[in-house]
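testing teh design pipeline on a random one, pls ignore if ur not involved
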C-alpha cells in the first residue's frame, strides 16, 4: 500500500506542476498579446520578456495559494489558477495598459 500511495502522490504532484507551468506560460502569452497595441508604450517587449514577467508574477499567487491551500484543502488545486489569472489581468489592466493623451 505504501508504494502505491507514494507513487500516486508523486504522479499527482508532477501532474499539477506541469499544469501550473503551462498556465504560467499561457499567461506570458496573454501579456505578450495584450501589449501589442499601436498606442501601448510597452509594445517593445519581446515574447521571452513577457514570459519572464509572468514567471516573476507567479511568485505571489504561489505563496498565497500555498497558505490558502493549507486553510481550505478541498479547494487547494484551484487557488493557484484563480490567483494567477487575477494577478496577470491586474498587471495587464493597471501597469501595462496603453497611454492615451
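output:
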Amino acid at each position: 500500500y505504501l508504494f502505491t500511495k507514494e507513487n500516486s502522490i508523486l504522479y499527482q504532484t508532477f501532474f499539477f506542476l506541469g499544469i501550473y507551468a503551462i498556465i504560467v506560460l499561457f499567461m506570458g502569452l496573454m501579456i505578450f498579446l495584450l501589449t501589442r497595441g499601436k498606442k501601448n508604450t510597452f509594445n517593445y517587449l519581446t515574447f521571452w520578456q513577457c514570459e519572464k514577467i509572468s514567471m516573476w508574477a507567479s511568485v505571489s499567487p504561489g505563496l498565497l495559494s500555498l497558505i490558502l491551500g493549507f486553510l481550505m484543502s478541498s479547494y487547494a488545486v484551484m487557488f493557484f489558477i484563480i490567483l494567477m489569472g487575477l494577478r496577470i489581468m491586474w498587471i495587464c489592466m493597471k501597469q501595462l495598459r496603453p497611454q492615451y493623451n
